[in-house]
Amino acid sequence: MLNFDKLSLNIPETTKPRVVVIGGGFGGLNLVKKLNGKDFQIVMFDKQNYHGFWPLLYQVATAGLEPDAIAEPIRKMFDEEYEDFHFRLVRVLGVDPVAKTVKTMIGDLHYDYLVIATGTKANFFGNEQVQKYSFSLKTIPEALNLRSQLLQSFEQASITVDPENRESLLNFVIVGAGPTGVEMAGSLAEMRKHVLPGDYPGLDFSKMKIYLVEGLERVLPPMSPEASAKTQKYLEEMGVIIKLKSLVDSYDGDVVTLKTGEQIRSQTVVWAAGVTGALIDGLPKESIVRGGRVTVNEFNQVAGYSDIFAIGDIAFMKSEKWPNGHPGVAQPAIQQGQHLAKNLRRLIRKEEMTPFDYFDKGSLAIIGRVRAVADLPGNLHLSGFVAWVAWLFVHIYYLIGFRSKLVVLSNWIYRLFTYERGTRLIIRPFVRKDDKDAEEFVMKNEIG
Length: 448
Prior knowledge:
The chain has twelve helices and 26 strands.
């Protein structure tokens, strides 16, 4: 057992400006890569010791990839050639802008410049019941929990003699038709058609239903109407039941109730309906806007501070071109991290910083094998095989590490010709804390 009284951050003293980065996502990672350790001491805090490529979490959840294929240890990415870089696996409790310190479980650390790159977490809009029983998809542990739940549902459906229970096990409800929801629905539909009948020959998978519930009037609301229409066509061809202009009222673990009064029996609800900023205690309330984002100026400085910056999904930078802030995808975080590194170097040289100008490289979403949509610069819209190839190339390019690129690419090529998914393993059974029947089933069968 750890004795916290005997732990220390163990960061060496320095005469260089100390940059403390909270978060090892796309923003924090690209900031550190572009900073020069000869000019700064760089300290990164994160509650996990790896950087994950979150756009592919749904493939971990649907048994397409193992988690280590989309994650890379942070320490491995910053080896000895990164001078004066220090990573600490700790949870940040808050910041004190007056004392210029970051508070952690094992001590405080003074900063000269603070960069908040904590990203987002699932937003349940205050619905505690839905939060308790549904599955969000923001971290690798959550993806593994969902993978276990999916596979356990098929296993239990194959042995139950109760038709109503089997129906509940084979109904899957995905709430939110953004990229995560659309890609999750498409992946499940492909499993239903090409993988599951071979694994469970005794089950009638024509009875398996995949619902995609969206509160707005179309799927993929962040993308163009052309991409939205094509995506809906693809999903309907794949047998996904789409419910637009529908909001979830409640979910008790067995029945999803929509605001319209319609009820769907399901033991698996995937929540992809929205995100909110992963805020840190200590920031002034007046700097926080709707969606839990932190207001920043054109230099990514948090409102009211010259030494605190926020980048990526957590940052809200309003402009004439982006009145609602930048989209919550990887590219703004990557570009803001790289740009802030240049501005920090300008600061220590007593030069003026330059404003951030986001270059929108477009948006992509994959629905299934050779089915994808793309909105590219110049009002160019692609779909089908060409968009699918573009999606593959972009995601391979932005994966961290040669090994990850090779593993993911080989998996995708293998699946292209075989449809096979080789990671259908229940490594750790998922059991809800208050589900006594599931706990008893696991214990009796000695699973795990």
